[in-house]
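Tokens for Argininosuccinate lyase. Go.
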Amino acid sequence: MTLWGGRFSSKLDEKAWALNTSLPIDRRLAAQDVRGSIAWAGALRKAGVLSAEEHTAIVTGLNAIAAEFASGTFTFSASDEDIHTAVERRLGDLIGTAAGKLHTGRSRNDQVATDFRLWLLETLPQLDAALHGLQSTLVSLAEQSRNVLMPGYTHLQRAQPVTLAHWLLSFFWPLQRDRDRLADLRERTAILPLGCGALAGTAFDIDRQALAATLGFTEPAPNSLDAVSDRDFAAEFLFDAAMAGLHLSRLSEDMVLYTSAEFGFFELSDAFSTGSSLMPQKKNPDLFELARGKSGALIGLLAGFMATLKGLPSSYDKDLQEDKAPVFQAVDTLLAILPVLAATLATMTVRPQKMLAAIDPTLLATDLADYLVRKGMPFREAHAAVGKAVQLAARKGIPLKDLELEEWQSIAPFEADVYAVFDPMEAVKRRTAEGGTSPAAVEKQIQKAKSILNQTLIGEKS
């Protein structure tokens, strides 16, 4: 069965059929297709297109089909071109000729756009919950590490000491931006295409406002030409997914480095590590490497889909059949990565002494400059003076903190209390401004993060 063909005298070539069919991809829209069809049947009944008996038969049949999909007993036919064909064909099997009235005033163009939007609207809460789960793990770990010190890096060079909690929370906020973007996307996705027909709208008296409300959309699309071809929501989702992948990749890159023997800040649980088929000693952070690698694939999905959209003329074109595969793949990728990374972090072992040992005295150079500033010296002069001290220690081959007091005083007005500057915990405690790394500032950050985590998730009722 096909939903077209009356003007054709022969069947589609077998190879052409294989290229044309979308069922292997859009079968994931089965539940949404049935749901949209039930709503459309109700709109046709209101418009007087269906009798009460026909409407009842159609809805009863569609509910039976929904049950078959839910139980996994639905049987697809070799002639099913797409999920819409499969549902309508099965409806005909169940109720007979009345099934043929369901597609009145409707096109697969507005139907698939509606199905796809419904699917994404129902999927966004799952992604939000998965991001929330990783955030929760980060906050929990941060609460345990307010006073654990580690070196902070810029340019992958040791820079200044920070707390481990501060580093962990530096990944909480990008994930929150990802969640905010998904919440914003929901508004633009909840626009109803159904009732726009193939491109020009429907000739029947369909109440599209009521139809939108029935399906949980905010409002009907205002222009039928735009509605059937609009895939901005899909492209926007792929951008959001790529950004989330980018954030996960940066976290993963740090974890790959910090679990190496050269750093040794963390050790991963055996349950979330892999080994080598050749080297018995290896314990590899493959899960983080996979997350890092898959972020590149997410960027590729976005770039590929944008290229598909770029050259299309107005209204619907079959190129848009390529919209669902990248979105499905992006969703599957994120839902696979997020819980694994959360579990991997939750079960790792932290090595505080390794991190503390990596805090070289030169990481307190900025604090030395601040020391001079507090004595009245302009910062630029203080910066230059400390630079000379660093150069002197390097020339002598000794740690910065081991310079003699006379050597300090030959450079700038340092006093005996200069050596107190080299306490890394005190250096961290001085960063009390909002957003800083001091335990006090981090505690405020933790409380703010926990407040966000207690807020309503996407799709939940407040």
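Residues 60 and 95 are 9 Å apart (CA to CA).
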